[in-house]
Specification:
- The chain is of the alpha/beta class and 175 residues long.
- The protein is built from 8 helices and 5 strands; from the N terminus they run αααβαβαβαβαβα.
- Helix 5 links the parallel strand 2 and strand 3.
- Helix 3 crosses helix 4.
- The longest helix has 17 residues.
């Protein structure tokens, strides 16, 4: 063992240096803002988000993978992330009707939205179908409700749990 760190089963992954972040951290501005706001706040750098999206796209291209990037709306409620998704053509993963409406309202096209939340409401399914969102189906009941709203050929991605959910394979065959 070297240094003062104890051995761990989880590998240590240091933060990547970022000049923009370092400049804000070194400026002394953050403690002043914390005092002015009366407590903690989020420190957000939208340009870092854009750079990360570009890096993911580069990695996918270099690996020869035809992949899509979706930001999970539930990860951070700040509107700036959805605005950046719209500006960069990045997809958004939503779990509810409010998140779906926010993504659409900030300019994310329905074709770039995936609806993954459990226990989706009929209204969420209806709006998702109208906007041509990809809907991850979690149950046969949900599949039936989706089909009620969906025209033939609407995109679907049923979740399949092999070995633990014997009826899941029927959902895949129906989609």
């Amino acid at each position: 063992m070297t240094g003062d760190r104890a051995p761990s089963a989880v590998p240590f992954l240091p933060a990547l240096p970022d000049p923009g972040t370092d400049a804000v951290l070194d400026s002394g501005l953050l403690p002043e803002l914390s005092h002015a706001f009366g407590g903690p706040f989020h420190f957000l750098l939208p340009d870092r988000f854009d750079a990360n999206v570009a890096a993911f796209r580069t990695a996918l291209a270099e690996a020869g993978v035809d992949g899509r990037i979706h930001y999970a709306k539930k990860a951070n409620k700040a509107a700036v992330w959805i605005e950046r998704c719209a500006a960069t053509g990045t997809g958004v993963d939503v779990a509810g009707l409010g998140e779906l409406r926010e993504a659409l309202g900030n300019g994310v096209r329905g074709e770039r939205i995936v609806v993954t939340g459990p226990a989706k409401s009929d209204e969420l399914l209806r709006v998702a179908v109208l906007q041509a969102c990809l809907v991850a189906v979690d149950s046969l009941d949900e599949l039936d409700r989706l089909l009620h709203h969906a025209p033939p050929g609407a995109p679907r991605a049923p979740r399949i749990l092999p070995g633990c959910c014997p009826r899941s394979s029927r959902a895949a065959a129906s989609a």
